[in-house]
Amino acid sequence: MPASPDWFEPARFGLFVHFGLYSLAARHEWVRSREAIPDAEYDRYLERFDPDQFDAPALAKAAREAGMRYAVLTAKHHDGFCLFGSKLTGYHSVRVTGRDLVAEFADAMRAEGIRVGLYYSLLDWHHPDFEIDRYHPLHADAAALEQPRDMARYREFLRGQVTELLTEYGDIDLLFFDFTYPAKGPEDWGAEELLALVRELRPGILVNDRLGIPGDYVTPEQYQPDRPLERDGVPVRWEACHTLNGSWGYDRDNHEYKDPALLVRMLVQSVACGGNLLLNVGPTGRGALDPRARETLAAIAGWMRLHERSVHDAGPAEFTPPSNVLYTQVGDRLYVHLLSWPLKHLHLPGLAGRVRYAQLLHDGSEVRFHQLDGENHEHNNLAPPSQDAGTLTLTLPIIAPDVLLPVLELFLDADA
After folding, report:
1. Element (H or E) spanning 201, and its range?
2. What is the secondary structure of 89-122 as a DSSP string?
3. Confidence class of residue 336 from pLDDT cuts 50, 70 and 90?
4. Are 212 and 189 in contact (CB under 8 A)?
5. pLDDT digits (tens, 9 = 90+) for 85-130
6. 67: region left, alpha or beta (phi > 0 left; psi from -120 to 50 alpha)
7. Residue 42: partners with Cβ closer than 8 Å, 6 or more residues away
């Protein structure tokens, strides 16, 4: 599968994997910065790094079953530790364990038909030429501050490692750079030259927007857009990036996990607004998914098994939904996602005469519908008041389906 941007929107759902030395600390991927951990102390994790439970094929299978069509692994995070055998540093998994986790990940995902993305941090707290700023763990270390540092040499290092990732691991479909911030900007990364190099090495690859210059798609993080995103009035590709519990890396004592039903709603909302959802897991220090992560992916898989056609290849609908409803659409099929279950009747403005058949998606059972007369007659004891002309009214069962998010599939009449 050569790199091409055409796969991104139809894919809609992806897996993000944050794994590294910080996973052993088990208290957030920014632990080294937050606690100002010096090199010698942080190297304790290097000495103990043993991802014996990192099972890339099992991870790929779980992603595929959850309906994920692409996956992104942290090839290098801010601490500078690489999950690939870089020739430009000895600070990597191959030297410590003999395992190239990027290679294992890429091979496993491709075997499951999943597009491969790599995350690469522009920061590097381990590299001797990366200039110390207030986010750097050594920002209060007087001896470290006195050492000469050269960002020009660091830019060469960046280009070298990106070249390794894009030439030694087969077709890479997506590159997730992270990130530009007030202390460091595009000139520090040589962003224009770096992006040009990426385009040269992998024409058609998708690159995100975190180099500090425009990329191929934008990456809202930890918030959920409620409308299609635009830049200067022009629609843009986008992908909402979310964690399970507020931490990207393994955080043992953080139990604020999002409910699977909420995550499914977030996925559908992304699709309804023309975007994708990239959902993160942070494997443990040994490389395994913790029980809550496994349970969450399994719950999403159960829903996607019955409802994936309301997500994959779908996008915003041409109709405006009523409250507590999200629409997605694929061709002549309109998917009605019910955020709350109504009592008997669901009124859909503007759809009268537009629908030839309706069913509950999870079991294919017919849902009857009719058009009310459109006359605003007065209330009486046994009949609901009329709806506005053009409203389609569906009659639903009293009991909601036992699924994370009920979905109706409406077959639109192309001639209406």
Report:
1. helix 191-201
2. -S-BHHHHHS--HHHHHHHHHHHTT-EEEEEEES
3. very high
4. yes
5. 999 999 999 999 999 999 999 999 999 999 999 999 999 999 999 9
6. left
7. 21, 32, 79, 137
